[in-house]
Amino acid sequence: CHRRRPRSPRHAAAACPPDRPPPALLRALEAEEPARALSVGDELVGETMPLRHGRRVYRLAGLRPPAWYEVKISYPASIPSSFSIRLVSDPDAVEDQGSKNRRLLNTEKIIFKAESTKPVYVLVMVEPEGVVAKPNVKERELALFNIVCDELLLGIPRFAWWVGIAAVICLVLASLAPYFLPIHKLLNYETAKSGNADAAKLS
């Protein structure tokens, strides 16, 4: 764009809008970004990456050997996607699987055991699934997903145990409440009083 001497800063911004990098360059820059940290128990919400040949590496933080862990992905059904998750030991040595025309297995979660204190990385890849149903509708360029790493206890996420224990405690308190609350005695008193009144009328 040929720049002229603007009369005011506002005219300058309107005359020459900032150039936006092409999508191919954005995908290349995103592929070269360092591994993101994924802490145990902390869910990363609203993660995005290219829907076609998208890939990203996460570094798992907070692992405690020899515990078991589960890494899983959730994504909206409005964006048909096929995700693949696998463990890698070196993020720099990961081959770009997106350059190959390979069908991804729809593996939305992975369970593993922390063997040592060495860094553990998770490679997430995605490919579009299906075709655009409506004509003249542009295919989505980004995949939207959430990813979380949870510690397992007997095959169940640790936070789920606390939810289950809290539910059991609530059920026990609800079953014992009538025997300790005054309303139970009040209902018994009202029943006995009405019974005495009926007996007095009959006599």
Describe the structure in your own words:
30% of the residues lie in helices and 31% in strands. It folds into two domains: 20-153, Sandwich (Jelly Rolls), CATH 2.60.120; 160-202. The N and C termini lie far apart (108 Å). The protein is α+β, with helices and mostly antiparallel strands. It has helices spanning 9-15, 23-31, 158-180, 182-202, and strands spanning 36-39, 44-50, 54-61, 68-74, 81-88, 109-113, 120-128, 142-153, 156-157. The longest helix has 23 residues, at 158-180. The strands form two sheets. Strands 2, 4, 6, 8 and 9 form a five-stranded antiparallel β-sheet that branches. The chain has four helices and nine strands. The chain crosses the membrane at residues 159-181. Keywords: Membrane, Transmembrane, Transmembrane helix. Residues 1-21 are annotated as: Disordered.
Features:
4 helices; elongated; four-stranded mixed β-sheet; Jelly Rolls; 2 domains; alpha+beta; 203 residues; five-stranded antiparallel β-sheet; single chain
Brief write-up:
Keywords: Membrane, Transmembrane, Transmembrane helix. This protein is of the alpha+beta class and 203 residues long.
Question: How far apart are the termini?
Answer: 108 Å
Main sheet summary? 5 strands, antiparallel
Q: Which H/E pattern describes the elements? A: HHEEEEEEEEEHH
- Sheet/helix structural class: alpha+beta
Oligomer: single chain
**Second CATH tier, the architecture of the largest domain:** Sandwich
